UniProtKB/TrEMBL annotation:
One Gene Ontology term from the biological process aspect of the record: L-arginine biosynthetic process
Family annotation (PROSITE patterns): AA_TRANSFER_CLASS_3
Additional remark text: May also have succinyldiaminopimelate aminotransferase activity, thus carrying out the corresponding step in lysine biosynthesis.
Reactions listed under catalytic activity: N(2)-acetyl-L-ornithine + 2-oxoglutarate = N-acetyl-L-glutamate 5-semialdehyde + L-glutamate
Keywords, alphabetical: Amino-acid biosynthesis, Aminotransferase, Arginine biosynthesis, Cytoplasm, Pyridoxal phosphate, Transferase
Binding site for N(2)-acetyl-L-ornithine: 131, 270
InterPro entries, sorted: AcOrn/SuccOrn_fam (IPR004636), Aminotrans_3 (IPR005814), Aminotrans_3_PPA_site (IPR049704), Class-III_PLP-dep_AT (IPR050103), PyrdxlP-dep_Trfase (IPR015424), PyrdxlP-dep_Trfase_major (IPR015421), PyrdxlP-dep_Trfase_small (IPR015422)
Nucleus is among the record's keywords: no
Protein name as it appears in the record: Acetylornithine aminotransferase
Superkingdom of origin: Bacteria
Family from the record: Belongs to the class-III pyridoxal-phosphate-dependent aminotransferase family. ArgD subfamily.
Alphabetized Pfam families for the sequence: Aminotran_3 (PF00202)
Amino acid sequence: MSALYGTYARSDLAFERGEGMRLYDQHGRDYLDFHSGVAVNALGHGDPHLVSALKAAADKVWHTANTFTIPEQERLGQRLVDATFADSVFFTNSGAEALECAIKTARHYFWAKGEPDRYEIIAFTGSFHGRTLGTIAAGGNPDYLEGFGPAVPGFKHAQPGDLDSVKALVTPQTCAILIEPVQGEGGVTAMSAEFMQGLRALCDEHGMLLILDEVQCGFGRTGRFFAYEWSGITPDIVAVAKAIGGGFPLGACLARGDVAASMVPGTHGSTYGGNPLATAIGNAVLDRILAPGFLDQVNAMGRKLTWHLQQLAQKYPDHVLELRGKGLLSGIKIATPVRDMVARLREDHGLLAMSAGDNVLRLLPPLIVSEADIEEAMGKIAAAFDAIEAETAANGAAS
């Protein structure tokens, strides 16, 4: 019996090494990775630049407290500011912590303005923002709230894509709107540019802040550095994690300078957040993602994946019910129970994918994916559909 909490429905599969787009298990079998550790391994496995940066940082200082200046953190923060809308950055260890910082920053902004009752945040059904008490309340999913007592107050939930449902929830107590430009866990739903622009205009009209959760869809996954860039808007706060560390625990909350101005010593903190080892690796990830041509290639592969998924949908209309997502955050709503499909792909076809809400098969390849990798993955999914059809026919004949 395992000594670990039973919070994960784990496969017995264990990996010993990884190289590029491939993982290798304890028996030497290779798997094509369209999972990326839930969008974390943006540069795949064993990226030489990341490995070199990790080894070099390990020979220096692993950790110091944030009561001291951390040069690698200062450098990474400035580079993120230079590449985005933001003026200020707070580093965390995870996406949930980045969202907690975003929520606290928004509320504290209005408190500092003399509006302490303005703390409510409008979020969306189908969203996922983390597993802390604050972020499960923001997500609003009853399954994640069950058993943990009353939900943290201050969150209302609108329908994604329905601007009128958002307008109906705005009150004098509303301080912000919180949304994933592309929902991941909830079903791989991409918000339209028009909807995102509508949210920005609504925030401007009522003096509210627009908070974006780009933990999964940011850092290049949709073909631009951040997904909000596709809609041409400017957010006030963005939470990021996952790909920012390329596999090392790291997250960040990015904000406009005036929004973050009230977050003075004592208002927030983190023991590990942005320590020397984490931010050295974060800088190495940024070296690769912001290198000339990298995001152009990601965008091209996102279009290739979309095209190949469309071909798959045409060939298997009884299996593929809907295509969703943006770029290399893609989803296939399928007829087969998605958890069964994930297991079949893993065990029978050597393809690592994952599930999302609404019976969606989620595809999250590393950003280094090639068209050959995409074609191989489509072949494996097609083989799984063929096997399901053969089994159904055999069962029908037997009965």
